[in-house]
Here is the input.
Amino acid sequence: MKLHTLVLDQLCASRKRLQVLIALVIAMGLLLTISIVTVDPDDRAYPVLVFDIVLVIGSFALFTTTYWYCIKRSMRE
Here is the structure.
């Protein structure tokens, strides 16, 4: 088997964990809104806030895409 097939098999086998990760990323995003409201663009913490926003959005996109792919893959089998 190819390496990416093995990796996807392992990821799809742990689909319940992906649901937990998606829920955690959503919670992180909700907590991040507090920082968005309180941090001004001229604060020293602003670059960290932007970095956190990019990480949360990227993680959410990665985990939801993987979860969607695993759902579609299980429907084909």
About this structure: The longest helix spans residues 46-76.
